[in-house]
Amino acid sequence: MIRCEAAALTLLADQLDGAFDLAVQHILTTSGRVIVSGMGKAGHVGRKIAATLSATGSPAFFIHPSEAAHGDLGMLKNNDTVLALSNSGSTPEVLLVVRHMLAAGVPVIAITGNGASPLAKIADVALVLPAVAEACPEGIAPTTSSTMKLALGDALAIATMRARGFSRAELARLHPGGSIGWRTQPVARLIRHDFPLPLATCGTSLHDVILKMTEAGKGVAGIVDDAGLLLGVITDGDLRRGFASILSSSADQVMTRNPKTVTTNTTIGDAAALMAEARINVVFVTDPKVEGRPVGVIHLHDLAMIG
User: Fold this and answer.
1) How many CB atoms lie within 10 A of CB 180?
2) CA-CA distance, 56 to 24, in Å (whole number)?
3) Which domains does the chain have, with CATH numbers?
4) pLDDT digit string (tens) for 28-50?
5) What span, in angstroms and rounded, lies between the C-alpha atoms of 128 and 134?
6) What are 268-307's pLDDT values in tens digits?
């Protein structure tokens, strides 16, 4: 099943032509919404395509073609664009919506498996799927065709997003919930201001540094200069490795200089990536306006999404 559908997707990718570019241009120049419509499995796929378009900067919604025939056509406006899905290209309910919108001068993009169908002929742009059999052993249940429609819808959404220059920040604004929203939050949200910041100066004894580390509970202490700017860090690992000489050492003799840091504006996702790449469990957060001034400290455990 999966190999059959994967082969169909390869054929689909290989046959994309100027019609795809034209469809992207129609979506880009739509001042209203992209109205997606389809019956049966095509309708289910259409709902997902509408959701992906909306999430990537192209406002869209799904309209059920049967409901459209009973008054929901009033939801459509002249500045919209229709994306109609029908594998046969002859679905009566879909054709009704398409003809209504064409009469109103609204552009119609069709995704169909039949280039000679009524839908393909009347649409402004017809994206025709490769002629491949369904993966269903009886060749009936929409399987391969549904997968191709879904992939083509994703391709339209992402190509349009790139053409718009839709940024990471804009994506984050549309995804405030769940793990996506959490990863795009600034690390400033993780700073615990009710805990003391474990900071010491270069001449501080290791005895006092350990007390500060224990009090803060993050397994790290930051070593700052007279201006309060971060020079280095001492971690639990540094203490273990230097245990033999620890009682006679000062902070600057044990610390790791030029440590990895993030600012309060760094996203949680980027902070997690930095810590994973550097193989560290804790990192100081600095003031973006004053380079090197520590304002907080976060542990790898702090990055786990909270409810």
Assistant:
1) 14
2) 13
3) 2-166 (3.40.50.10490), 187-303 (3.10.580.10)
4) 999 999 999 999 999 999 999 99
5) 15
6) 888 999 999 999 989 999 999 998 999 989 888 888 764 4
